[in-house]
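Problem statement: downstream parser choked on a complex file, so we are re-checking the raw output for the manganese (II) ion run. The parser issue turned out to be on our end (a line-ending mismatch), but while we're here, posting the original submission so the record is complete.
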Amino acid sequence: MRQYIQFSEEVELAKQKGKAIVALESTIISHGMPYPQNVEMAKNVEQIVRDNGGVPATIAIMNGEIKIGLNDEELETLAQESDVAKVSRRDIAEIIATKKIGATTVASTMICAQLADIKFFVTGGIGGVHKGAEQTMDISADLDELSKTKVTVICAGAKSILDLDKTLEYLETKGVPVVGYQTDELPAFFTRESGLKLNTRMDDVETIAQLAEVHWDLGLDSGIVVANPVPEENQLDPEFINDIIDKAVKIAEQNGIHGKDTTPFLLSEIVDQTNGQSLETNIKLVEHNAKIGTQIAVAFTNLENE
Ligand code: PSU
Ligand code: MN
């Protein structure tokens, strides 16, 4: 078989040394945030992973290869170029075969991480069941991926651009553990609470690492979601942001936005409508996820070496 995976030097070295590697996605860079905040965020988050004892592996598709770990030039390309494809499971083969540039979503980053034997992945928010899914059938491929790919995803829950209730129901049906980190509720990305109680709460990173070890030891071959609420001082007022989200959802409907364009459209509409306030919160929560996610990955590596 052809070789499809290309490790950066930093990640290659980390693999040899058995260090905790943390995967990071690139759709958040290319389609989730504006330039130049997107590339600044990407670099900061990588540094936070290093500062917490891990090694960052930002993932993207370039030159017919899956890149595990990117250099500054590659990050800039993803942040600036307008023709970067948004790559989910469906698109991986096409973008590799045609040698286009692709930014990976949660679903495809999980796939690439598993191929590269990386078990922990930090992002902002996961995709989910969209509002009105009864009509549109718009359910993110992220959820199905979580049901069958062995990667723990550390996020700040999911945005209330989604139907969070149905998103949790879907994950329950698929047998995906959703762990609240120091919270009883599913965090709603910009806000710490959604009103939706979680089945599982854990207050320290070691216990989460143990859960992951047991889950995978037993051959329960799914992903795991760790929901880590945005820090108190960075959260937005729920009424303020939910109002804006509702408007954004309506505008998307009126403009016939659908398929893979929906989430990026809503994200950029929300940044505009909040005059960038949502962007600041978004960056802070990813940074916080990087810290906690790396601590979990390091705890897991320590367990493996016991
Ligand atoms: N949610 C966010 N920010 C993001 C995304 C989701 O708050 O950047 C991105 C992630 O890459 C996620 C993708 O995997 O959007 C989901 O897209 P869709 O809803 O089309 O599956
Ligand atoms: Mn969708």
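For whoever reads this later: The longest strand covers residues 55-62.
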